[in-house]
Write a structure and sequence with these properties.
Elements (H helix, E strand, L loop, with lengths): L4 E6 L13 H18 L4 H6 L2 E12 L8 E10 L4 E10 L4 E13 L4 E2 L3 H8 L9
Length: about 140
């Protein structure tokens, strides 16, 4: 099995809270950054999605915090998509320090919304496959 897609991130001071560790809401931003980075690496742009009349939506996000992160910490944020036969897909993400310590695990459920009907499309996997120049980054 191939390694999941990942992007490097440096924790910035303004992202920390009064305790000096990464604010809990920023973990979601890091996860979203990795997702869009994967889409971009696969050749999918926001304009490409809009031209097909769809947009990604988050339906559920769960974060399991394991170790604190502090300003200046260097991390890798992974992103791995899993598609089923339904309207939704799953994303598994890990935020890992450079020493290998897992700081957080994020699981999410997403879908592609038809921007006109305002409903999830029946098979998001096919949209990703059609739009991507590198569908293998999604395991397709």
């Amino acid at each position: 099995m191939a390694e999941p897609f990942s992007v490097p991130v440096t924790v910035r001071g303004y992202e920390t809270d009064v305790q000096g560790h990464l604010n809990q809401s920023v973990y979601v931003n890091y996860a979203e950054h990795a997702r869009w980075s994967l889409l971009h690496a696969a050749g999918i742009t926001q304009q490409g999605l809009i031209s097909k009349g769809v947009g990604p939506v988050a339906l559920e996000t769960t974060i399991r915090y394991q170790r604190e992160l502090r300003a200046g910490d260097e991390v890798e944020v992974t992103c791995d998509f899993t598609f089923s036969e339904g309207k939704t897909f799953r994303m598994r993400q890990t935020i890992r320090k450079t020493d290998g310590t897992v700081a957080a695990e994020i699981t999410a459920v997403g879908g592609l919304m038809d921007l006109t009907a305002r409903k999830l499309v029946a098979d998001p996997k096919e949209y990703f496959r059609a739009l991507a120049s590198q569908p293998q980054l999604f395991g397709l």
